[in-house]
């Protein structure tokens, strides 16, 4: 059975997966890039970003990379929330084509949850954005149907991940706990009392100082 | 310089250091003992509880015990919040002498923060409870004065630890992150944005599945 999987969602110690004040210039709000610093030196990120970044892959990031790379293995479709596709108000901008340029890293059908659907956007490299207004369960059905028997990535942001978790739709969850305190923003964990009961939970700390938590459905 | 130290404060993934509904029978509310399960098999806990418990020390708990034991090293006084000393309403019960029987494990002067001070209680084994209404800074002054040049333990619960952290009074903080989701209760981390900036932070995951986080003042 194909699985619904969440990968590489980073949270602060106080549980915020993005900061306050998201905008075009600050996609993570006041958190800046602090939740993703563990990710940038990994081979996986460097491979995604190609020539656009000059940062070197750090060997010390190998333990993090083992987790980061899993996000791209065996995925046939992605579902993302509206806030991952663009800054507030992108729905009113007919020119907006996502944060990722003309060749987004998804390379699969990618379903964007929004209350204002529009025609699909076919990008280079295999990504086609589909815009749909749907419940989590409906969106997952559509994504599995498009995934060709592979798994579906529940891509975030935190609000939609929380909704999929609350609906019991997530088979595998990988969270990266970053030891900073953001104080404000969007919480990942609210309203999920007892979530761990349905999962085997593993924790691994890496040299970068983050802790990788994986929840695997029993 | 003697230090103000916090040890062995356990939090759920969603940041709750105690559950909802604390009472005489449920000192951690609906959390039960789930936040402390990593602690019970340690040599440190077994040594504290003496004959009262029959649980065996588990060798697998050694990595946890290295953290647990530090709580009792070099401490000359403790400060605790009212909710650690007793269930809601203990101030109105003249017979209440704390949760720990006639020989409490503190073995030092122990300052209980309460808005209804009363005369000290001298217990067996070196613990004397002093009851005082004071700000965190005032309480810390009193505790250092009583600690004979040793460190002071900021003993919890989470509300008072958060107040001491917010006031910048904590030199060393040890938090045990337990991979469960409590959903409700008393949060440790609220209102502490940017706390990590003043500390070196370390994270270590142990075989029990918890992650020990230590914040050491720079």
TrEMBL record, chains A, B:
Protein name: Dihydrofolate reductase family protein
SUPFAM superfamilies per the UniProt record, alphabetical: Dihydrofolate reductase-like
Pfam families (alphabetical): RibD_C
Gene3D superfamilies referenced in this protein's UniProt entry, alphabetically: Dihydrofolate Reductase, subunit A
Domain Bacterial bifunctional deaminase-reductase C-terminal: from-to ranges: 8-193
């Amino acid at each position: 059975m194909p699985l619904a999987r969440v990968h590489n969602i980073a949270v602060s110690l106080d549980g915020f997966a993005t900061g306050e004040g998201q905008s075009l210039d600050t996609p993570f709000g006041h958190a800046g890039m602090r939740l993703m610093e563990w990710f940038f030196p990994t081979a996986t990120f460097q491979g995604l970003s190609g020539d656009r970044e000059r940062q070197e892959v750090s060997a010390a990031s190998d333990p993090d990379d083992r987790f980061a790379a899993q996000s791209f293995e065996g995925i046939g479709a992605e579902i993302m929330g509206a806030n991952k596709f663009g800054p507030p108000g992108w729905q009113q901008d007919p020119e907006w084509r996502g944060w990722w340029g003309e060749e987004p890293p998804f390379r699969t059908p990618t379903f964007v949850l929004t209350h204002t659907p529009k025609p699909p956007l076919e990008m280079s490299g295999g990504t086609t954005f589909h815009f749909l207004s749907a419940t989590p369960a409906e969106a997952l059905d559509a994504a599995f149907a498009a995934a060709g028997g592979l798994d579906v990535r529940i891509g975030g942001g935190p609000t939609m991940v929380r909704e999929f978790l609350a609906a019991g739709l997530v088979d595998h969850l990988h969270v990266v706990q970053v030891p900073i305190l953001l104080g404000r923003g969007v919480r990942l964990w609210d309203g999920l009392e007892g979530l761990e009961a349905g999962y085997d939970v593993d924790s691994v700390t890496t040299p970068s100082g983050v802790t990788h938590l994986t929840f695997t459905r029993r």
